[in-house]
Write a structure and sequence with these properties.
The protein has two domains: 37 residues; 38 residues. The chain is built from two helices and four strands, in the order H-E-E-E-E-H. Strand 1 and strand 2 form a beta hairpin. The protein binds zinc ion (ZN). The site of zinc ion (ZN) has 8 residues, from loops.
Amino acid sequence: MKYFIVLAVVFLVAWRWRSARSSTLEHQQQQKAKAQAGPADMVACRHCGLHLPESESLRGQHGVYCSPAHRQAAEG
Ligand SMILES: [Zn+2]
């Protein structure tokens, strides 16, 4: 009976460790997917450093900018 309790405890610990580990893995995979979908197309304004989606940025000769005013300020 004593061994049965020890075995049960070992089994429980192993099971909990496994489920905790798999949920951590799932979490990491979700974070990876998020990172690939989200911030990949963020750019920083060359003048003020503001981060904005690439689709909303303005392209200049030397980089991207958040507004026409900053493009003009940086490139004249
Ligand atoms: Zn700016």
